Amino acid sequence: MEDVAFTNALPWRTASQSAFGKSIARRAASLYTRPVVNELQPKIIVAVGKKSADILEYAGLMSPSVVVWNRAQALQPQVVAEREAATAQFTKLLEAL
Q: Is residue 32 part of a domain?
């Protein structure tokens, strides 16, 4: 566990709980997310939710070592398929370490 870091490096809500625009998200990604990820130098990143994956993309951090976990509450067939694919990708990345 000493090799695992968890961070909410993607705080994408305002105090009023409203979302903000892409230009602000891109700026925050470059000023906050990219430096945090660069400092940690993770071998695997699990983006919890598609918005998290978008922010990693804005920061220029998307790579084959980024696993996107669909956090939808309704287990529709597409969600199940995406989670199975993410689990397989994560397992493959772990085995390659």
A: yes
Backbone angles phi, psi at 66, to 5 degrees: -100, 120
Whats the size of the chain, residue-wise?
A: 97
Give the chain's domain count: 1
Q: What is the pLDDT of residues 60-97, one digit of tens each?
A: 998 889 999 998 888 899 999 999 999 999 999 999 98
What pTM was computed for the model? 0.79
- The reply to whether 17 falls in a domain is no
- Tens digit of pLDDT for each residue in 42-65? 889 999 888 888 888 999 998 889
Is 2 within a domain?
Answer: no
The domain in which residue 31 lies consists of 22-96
Q: What DSSP string runs through 30-76?
A: IIIIHHHHHHH--S-EEEESHHHHHHHHHTT---TTEEEE---SS--
